[in-house]
Design a protein that fits this description.
118 residues, 11 strands, seven-stranded mixed β-sheet
Length: 118
């Protein structure tokens, strides 16, 4: 079992920044693929960014150049630095872990709300 707890969400004006954190309960996340997803009201959950073991990173096009995913293996924590925020970034942000390497995310956090005002 892996428990994921997100924090760092809040209300910010357009153009502002937030840093989300995802703390994992296991002693090491270095072998996992970790990702951030988001779900806006009335929309399906969508992929935002992921970080692999190398650690390679990958982003959805809408956040490239504005968001940065990183991880601290010693702290078992994954971060999402979000800059130049836009109102369309408003969503509940979820942390997810792929612990099996099978390509699916088998553990999810409870989510943290990010609201960007115009």
């Amino acid at each position: 079992q892996v428990q994921l707890v997100e924090s760092g969400g809040g209300l910010v004006q357009a153009g502002g920044s937030l840093r989300l954190s995802c703390a994992a309960s296991r002693r090491t996340i270095s072998g996992y693929v970790m990702a951030w997803f988001r779900q806006a009201p009335g929309k399906e959950r969508e992929f935002v960014a992921r970080i692999g073991r190398n650690p390679t990173t990958y982003y959805t096009d809408s956040v490239k150049g504005r968001f940065t995913i990183s991880k601290d293996n010693a702290k078992n924590t994954v971060y999402l630095q979000m800059n130049s925020l836009k109102p369309e970034d408003t969503a509940v942000y979820y942390c997810a872990a792929d612990t099996t390497g099978a390509g699916g995310y088998n553990y999810w956090g409870q989510g943290t709300q990010v609201t960007v005002s115009s």
